Structure formats: C-alpha cells, structure tokens
Amino acid sequence: MIRKAVIPAAGYGTRNLPVTKSVPKEMFPISGKPALHYIVEEAAGAGIREILIIVSRGKNAIIDYFDKSVELEHHLRKQGKPHLMNHFPFPDMHIQYVRQPEALGLGGAVRLAEPFVGNEPFALLLPDDLLVDGVETLNRMIRVYEVYKRPVIGLRRLEDKSQLRNYGVVQGEWIAPSLVQIAELIEKPVDKPPSDLAVLGRYILPPEIFSYIKSTKPGNGGEVQLTDALRAWLQTAAIYGMEIKEQCYDISKTNEYIELQWLMYQKQLDTK
User: Fold this and answer.
1) What is the rounded distance in angstroms from the CA atom of residue 137 to the CA atom of residue 111?
2) Please, are residues 200 and 129 in contact by the beta-carbon 8 Å criterion?
C-alpha cells in the first residue's frame, strides 16, 4: 500500500561541524557504506519502490553516490576486479531528487514532496536515525497505517529524561501493545515533558499532511515545523504513535555514531 518514501537530507548538519561543511552528514560512513545507504535499503526492504531525496546546495555527493559510475566500472573491469561492482548501491527502485533552496524546517522540506507524493500515503524517513532492524520496524508501521488509515509516528522511550528537550514528545492513551493514540505533541519541551516518549525519525503520513503544513505559521528562524502541523491535525483527527523498541542510533551524536560503528563491525565479523 505504501509505495513512496521521502528522505529529507537538506539540513546544514550544524551539530557535526566542521566536517559537515564539506561532507553531508547523510554520507557519514558506517562499516563501509554511508548512513543514507542503510535508509534506502530499509525502504526497499519494506516494499517501497519510489524515493524522493530532498537535498540542498553542497549535497551533490548524495546524488553522485546513487548514480552509475561508468568510468569506475570500466576501471574495475580493466583491473580484473569486476566483483567489486557487487557493492554498488543500485537498489531496485526509482530515486529522484528535489533541491530545497533555503533551510525552512522539516515541515518546509516535506512540503516540497507534494508533487512527488500526489494523493498517496507515504513514508517519511529521517536519515539521522538509524535502526538496526529498520525493515521490520517500517513494515510494522505500515501495517498500523493499513488498519487505522491515520498518521503513524515512530516513538522511542528515553531513559535519560534530560534529553527529551531535544525531541518532540508525546502523551496519549495506550490502545494496544506498543501503540498509543496521541493526545498531546510538544516540540522540544523545555520544562515538564508530558512523557518519556520521544518522536523518532519515522512517519507514515497520508497526503492530507500537506494542507496542514501550508497553514502552519513559521516559528523561530522562519522554520516550519512538522510537529506544529501534526498538532493542528490532532484537533480534528486521531494520530497514532508506535513505540520502537529496536536498537536506534542518532548518527549526529558522536557517542551513538561510534557505538553503531562498533556494532556493525561486529555484525560483519559474525557473517564471515
């Protein structure tokens, strides 16, 4: 039912300066592959066949990575190493791009996807968050959407309550194991977050989200927040959150990025 995915990759990566001045955060290497490669594999594994990647100036490395390299393939054949081409990232799907000329928040980026999405529901995958078993998680979220036909947001329970100020936080009623009907959604609460459930970078959204994004007023820095659009939607319709218990790593945080590197290295050793 979900055939399309949108991956916002237009941010400046300010939390990871100075390296992100020239290297997109989405291209940070993890066990020989960039982070974005894992997100695309996650989408492909969940049956998605069309992806829109939202980029910005200086993100050409992303476009080049998923492009065909005729010169490199010729060189490998000439060197007698054609087997190395098996590692090239050519998933069985259509990938296209749109450039965001100015950083106007996640809502502003998602709005650019409307012509691509059309009248279909779609997956929104934020490449900062890498899941060890992302395919199974995305499939579960899709199944929830197929039952309720309403927005589904990925949630992560944070043990360190001081970190909640860096995320959207939800409160609601548990209606099934790992499934909550959201009653309140707050973006980066400074004081007294309503729960310990933080919004994770995985969403299944109906196309109606675009009308709410368009009517959402810009906040600090002129940015339009997706959370604000979802809060407005909450006033008239149900929105669901699915707790994700699989291991998740935020690659913009150095400690989590290093932990993920070590985990993927160990997984590689186990498969040899």
Assistant:
1) 25
2) yes
